[in-house]
Specification:
The chain is α/β, with parallel strands linked by helices. Helix content is 35%, strand content 23%. It contains six helices and seven strands; from the N terminus they run H-E-E-H-E-H-E-H-E-H-E-E-H. The protein has a seven-stranded mixed β-sheet.
Length: 167
């Protein structure tokens, strides 16, 4: 909350260019269950396609990640090799129980064709936080993942015009 007060809902502006593949970090493994009911891993969902991976820890952060999804989908509307994968993380066991009860609502308000690419993870993700640079769980994060599972670009908070163009 202090970060939000001091920095607003954006910690940094996304890079203007893609990270070179030789310098890019690989996507870490995070398992969970999709809205379609399949147990899977984010790696399996992203493998072989250019993916905009959104990472949300709360409802507020969905506003941030949604601002990146529209420009991405507009740019790749005709491509079968591009997709959006949503990762919803709940680390607190009490809030996880509430999220479990809200799953029917979440399924109803998420288009059915997106259920297979909406992954929910319950539990600690400290390894993901460190490797992906997730410093504040109150804001949303997006990562552009290439077909070989390398993180080539990243952003956070509400998208600004320059970020939508560089993505």
């Amino acid at each position: 909350i202090v970060d939000l007060r001091d920095n607003g809902d954006k910690l940094f502006e996304a890079p203007k260019q893609l990270i070179r593949s030789s310098k890019a970090h690989y996507l870490p493994s995070v398992s969970g269950k999709t809205l379609a009911g399949q147990k899977t891993d984010v790696i399996d969902l992203c493998r072989g396609k250019t993916t905009l991976l959104t990472v949300n820890f709360n409802k507020f952060s969905e506003l941030h990640t949604n601002s990146f999804i529209d420009p991405f989908e507009a740019a790749f509307a005709d491509s079968e090799d591009a997709q959006v994968v949503r990762l919803n993380i709940e680390e607190n066991w009490a809030k996880a129980m509430v999220l479990q009860m809200c799953l029917p609502y979440l399924r109803r308000h998420t288009p059915k064709d997106r259920h297979a690419n909406y992954l929910i993870h319950y539990g600690d993700v400290e390894g993901l936080r460190k490797s992906m640079g997730i410093a504040n769980s109150l804001i949303g994060y997006v990562f552009l993942i290439d077909k070989e599972l390398r993180v080539r670009w990243y952003g956070n908070g509400l998208a600004v015009m320059s970020e939508a163009q560089s993505m």
